[in-house]
Amino acid sequence: MKGKKRDAQVAFGRSPFPNDFTMASTDSKHDSDLKVDIEKTSSDSPAPALDAHYDPGFVKKTLLMVDLRMLPLLGLLYAVALIDRTNLGIARTAGMDIELKLDIGERYSIASMIYFIPYILLQIPGNIVLRWIGARSWLTICVVGWGIAQLGMGFVPTWGWLVFCRIWLGVFEAGFFPALVFIITTWYKRHEVQKRLALFYLISILFGGFSSLLAYGLAQLSGRGGLLGWSWIFIIEGILTIVLGLLTWLFVPDFPDKSRFLTDAQRKMILDRVEADRGDSVPDKMTGAKIIRHLGDPILWIMALMFMCSTMPAYAIGFFITIILRTMNYSVTMSLILTAPPYVLAAISCFFFAWISDKTQKRALWLAVQNLICIVGLFIVAYADKNGVRYFGLFLVNAGASGCIPGVLAYNANNITSHTKRSVSSAVVVAAGGIGGIFATTVYRQRDFPKYLPGLWATLACQFSMLLCLAFTTWVFKRRNQAYREGKSGPLENTPGFYYTT
């Protein structure tokens, strides 16, 4: 506990239930009792002590309210973000390649990659602005802004103007995904997080997978208004994004301490659970010294490297799956249609591994299993002779890579405390995902068409690197946990009773 100021912030009102667990007391005995409860928690055993003080039905009902208010809308928004940043490959297949002469040199790779430069650079500033102006205002600005950039791509006359619009797409999307991760992880206990991250990401996978079918339908508008089909893809999707931005302003929830759709008792229960789980229910003030200190944690950079290794194959699939399918001698129509099924398997796999990860309270193990699935798929795509077998390999690549994205985010979120570190770490990790996007768009080179073997081997290198990172973080976390249990080190993450999740 950090004194009366924190207690006053957390105590929003008394629960209607007789066994209410209140954090409002500043009595030292209460603080010591709380510490005992927290110290029972480890990465190997959950601590139901706090929930036992609340009616289970009350807890379940409140969490369901939060889930329904937050996950569908945020999932839909992220689905639109993924579609808007990766639909370049679909538009290329639908005729943009010829109109803007993207087959000259590395124009397509440059247009794909340029988005990620502002996306990477603006992650941390975006999360700072997020706490300053609030989740609803910031997310609305981001969504409407990139919707306008997407709309503009439908009217570009040359390759240079396409690059210009892609830069602005990156500017506005930069603050969006780290804000989503930051917001979601502030509402739940550590071993409830991955299922939630997977659920909103699962929504984005399904919508993203079927975006090729939507794009195919929109391409049939070719000739209307004097515009070609690829233009209509950007125009309609841009308008839909702007509309969703307005819905964001109306419905997106803010941080738990600022939320208005819950009662005082519900808000207090959410904050109590988070406080007992990791001690950071109340935001701490962001300072330059804290940013520098958080950036000095080497584990943060290892988590960032793992996220880059996870996003690299996901972006490669997003940008190049329709093109790879075209190299298998499928027609344009069939290439767009066959893009969807691998995403269905990816959604199922993503949720299964999130469920088993939360249930077993193990992160690294199940991430490693998904890496191996991706590795097998990459070898099949690279070296199989038959098109049907290579197509099956795309299923495995997508399934293995997609589930690692919420998995790494949960792994990172489970092993940090304080709002400032959560803000900095989520921004750095997601920025590293942008580097994965740059990597994916530059190693799949036009001159390596149609097999793209150097790109596939670069993707394999990412998967092997992630396995090494997982082995290292598991070793470090277990050593630190053991040292703390034996009294050889102080509180982990400066939080008494906190243990790392392996």
TrEMBL record:
Main subcellular localisation: membrane
Location within or outside the cell: Membrane
Signal peptide feature range: none
Membrane topology designation: Multi-pass membrane protein
Highest taxon above the source species: Eukaryota
Compositional bias (Basic and acidic residues): 27-42
GO CC field: membrane
Coiled coil: none
UniProt entry keywords in alphabetical sequence: Membrane, Transmembrane, Transmembrane helix, Transport
PROSITE patterns to which the protein is assigned, alphabetical: MFS
Protein name: Major facilitator superfamily (MFS) profile domain-containing protein
Pfam family, any one: MFS_1
Segments of this protein annotated with the region Disordered: 1-48
Membrane spanning residue stretches: 70-88, 108-130, 137-161, 167-187, 199-218, 230-252, 299-324, 336-357, 364-384, 390-411, 423-444, 456-477
Major facilitator superfamily (MFS) profile domain boundaries: 73-481
GO molecular function: transmembrane transporter activity
